[in-house]
Amino acid sequence: MELVNITIEGQTYQVEKGLTILEAAKKCGYDIPSLCAFNHGECSLASCRVCLVEAQEGKGPFRLVASCVYPVSDGMNVLIGSPKATAARRTSVELLLSNHNRNCQECDKNGKCELLHVAQLTGARENMYEGAKTPTTVDMLTPSIKRDTSKCILCGRCIARCSNAHGLSVLGFERRGFNTIVGPAENRSFLNSPCILCGQCTTVCPTGALMEVSEIDKVDAAFKAGKHVVVQVAPAVRASLGEEFGMKIGTPVTGKMIAALRRLGFERCYDVNFGADLTIMEEGTELLHRLTEGGVLPMITSCSPGWINYAEYYYGDLLDHLSSCKSPHQMQGAIIKSYWAKQKGYDPKDVFVVSIMPCVAKKFEKDRPEMEVDGIRDVDAVLTTRELGKLIKRSGINFNRLPDEEWDQDIMGEYTGAGVIFGVTGGVMEAALRTVYFKLTGKEYGKIEFTEVRGNDAGIREASLDINGTVVNVAIASGMKSAKVLLDQIREGNSKYHFIEIMGCPGGCINGGGQSYVKPCLLPNEDDDIIDTYKAKRANALYSEDERQVVRQSHNNKQVQELYEKFLGEPNSHLAHELLHTHYNKNRERFD
Amino acid sequence: MAHLQEAAVKQICEICERYKDETTPLMMILSDIQKEYGYIPLEVQELVSEKTGISVAEIYGVVTFYSFYSLKPKGKNVVGCCLGTACYVKGAQQVIDKFSELLGIKPGETSEDGLFTLDALRCIGACGIAPAVQINGTVYPKMSVDKVAPLIEQYRGEGA
Questions:
Q1: What is the total count of domains within chain B?
Q2: Which residues of A touch B42 (CB under 8 A)?
Q3: Tens digits of per-residue pLDDT, B43-86?
Q4: What is the ipTM of this complex?
Q5: With an 8 Å Cβ cutoff, are B57 and A174 in contact?
Q6: Residue of B nearest to A162 (CA)
Q7: Size of interface A-B (CB pairs under 8 A)
Q8: Cα dist. A162→A35, A197, A230, B57, B117 in Å?
Q9: CA of A282 to nearest chain B CA: how many angstroms apart?
Q10: How far B76 CA sits from the closest chain A CA (Å)?
Q11: Which residues on chain B are in Cβ contact (under 8 Å) with A159?
């Protein structure tokens, strides 16, 4: 590692060559206010000019440079707190604010806004530059993502994320100068663009320009109408919800979360892990059928609605490879509206199912026309992890002081460790393998864990397992950039796999588009490398819960067994198909 | 892609093919299409996206950034009035207003008969002969409001 000597604020330091001034300063203990820079240069357009510092190279003059992209050089002299640098940064922020919709108090991003953060840091003055504003577009046509250009600062983070995660670049800069906006081509709605609604853009947007479409009002209305409101929570939410209340990333908060949900008035609180176990029974059985009876292989998982959107739009010719299973929360919703409602003696029309999800694509999924049985919708509202945080705060609940409580135990209270790990890339695969191994061999896999398939980032992992003479080749991908590699192999006819797990977001649901924001500047108590480690920390929260479970294989879930005995018959039965399975459309029309 | 004629699809594919070895072929492809057809509608951008792997959003961004590219068909005669600083202080605004009044179109629009498109240009580097007007590449120096009507008639005559 080559080192260079630099001076910052009169102090000399040795830093790694190749770092930007911003990175080098951070290592030396200086936080230069910055806005558009993100995640080790994931976005490095240097468009916002908030991180300006004075830098002198050699005997040259001091010049204002954007520290987020300007590299350090030997002998460089950097001034962060000089009158010229501080005034320049303040002006940059004031100019951004001059073209910003300043309804900050009512903005959904209130409290999590990076623009407000730098406005405070730089001492931006009130109403410095009044004048014309760029014409605004507000897109609320999808149930998932809201785009409001009046709050956009043109940093380009969303464009970079869409491209890095999925290779898609659905978003781009368009027009020019003062009229520049960020949006899908032709400033269309996400509904009419090739967007897969994963919501990764909402996790990186520094302001309220890209956010989930809130459904809190729907839930309020259901309570008001006296419905039987049942809540079900996805596995990944417990690994992130604590962050909404200032806890360290990766703190599992299952018990407090249940306590909070109960205090919010939900009639029943269920874990979607039960639905995950159910999914494994259905999907595992489907895979065994395909393996033994010569069905379409490789079979691909269908839990991630972002991935489903991608498949339908870009790989319409491969839809037969997708498992016909609904995602776990849709399955569980259908069971709540049928089996549970019947046991309670409720009319399914009076039951309202709320899913808490780490995902914004789930909002779209639950609205798909096929997600209902006899006119009864499986799920009525989907809230993100962030929305649940708001709901809890709004109700005056002191989350940190809540006791740990347990899920409601009736009918679908039990879940296994296999269900928990659905929330991380490779988890569905591992859960399925535990059950498929049992079905093929008649005995449990000795060490339970299939660590070969574990990980917490994008990229492809693969494993080959010899189960009683049956060789099963599996692959796992998350993020569409990785998925595309596996899909192109299938299209070209040279895929060697039998079973593939695909998750829409890089790292799986722990890094879903509906999870808490990971913005280092707003997390002063986290480690400096949090942007590199948060996925692993959240994944560990799930794996540790799996380890704590007594039952760790879906087929050993007693209540799932009971559900089959009393109601569904057997996996992939006629009734199971009616309630728990779905179909896909080459729905390119949605976008035209 | 349903709106594009087969011949056009073929030609656009050829244009994309022409620059396949370039590291950054987009500007060249778009320039050729603009020259050939006079505009680059979204359907064509989608086709270029398919051929080059560059996202539609990015292509749309380039098309809407440069005033040379157009999303809508241009008229037979493209009238560009320079509104750069020198032309502006010499009365270019009055000139473009006169064009606008006589042609019945606003800057950026094309007349219904397809004969004229009116564009407002930033500096075209002809400050010495301000105010300047450019029609189909020919520059008309030291324009005045009175010279607008005869000029339109001249091109209307050629167009008819």
A1: 2
A2: 185-186
A3: 999 999 999 999 999 999 999 998 788 898 888 899 999 999 99
A4: 0.85
A5: yes
A6: B55
A7: 39
A8: 19, 10, 34, 11, 37
A9: 37
A10: 25
A11: 57
**Structural domains in chain A?**
3-96 (3.10.20.740), 134-212 (3.30.70.20), 217-591 (3.40.50.1780)
Q: How many alpha carbons lie under 13 Å from residue B53 in its C-beta half-sphere?
A: 6
- Chosen from A47, A168, A173 to mutate, greatest number of chain B CBs within 10 A: A173
Q: What pLDDT score does A592 carry? A: 41
What is the least distance, in Å, from the CA of A350 to any CA of chain B? 44
Residue range(s) defining the domain that contains residue B151: 77-159
Round to whole Å and give the CA distance between A245 and A379. Answer: 27
pLDDT tens-digit readout, A373-402: 999 999 999 999 999 999 999 999 999 999
| Model pLDDT for residues B124-153, shown as the tens digit of each residue | 889 999 999 999 889 999 999 999 999 999
Task: Dig out the tokens for A170 from the structure.
Answer: 């659905």
CATH of the domain at B91: 3.40.30.10
pLDDT of B159 above 60: no
Residues (pLDDT < 50) of chain A are: 588, 591-592
Instruction: Identify the bridge partners of residue A15 per DSSP, sorted by sequence position.
Output: A4
Q: Is A499 exposed, middle or buried (0-12, 13-18, 19+ CB in 10 A)?
A: buried
DSSP-derived secondary structure letter, A336: I
Classify the C-alpha dihedral A318-A323-A324-A325 as positive or negative.
negative
Q: Which residues of B touch A168 (CB under 8 A)?
A: 55
Which two three-digit tokens encode residue B156?
Answer: 């209307």
pLDDT the model gives residue B160: 46
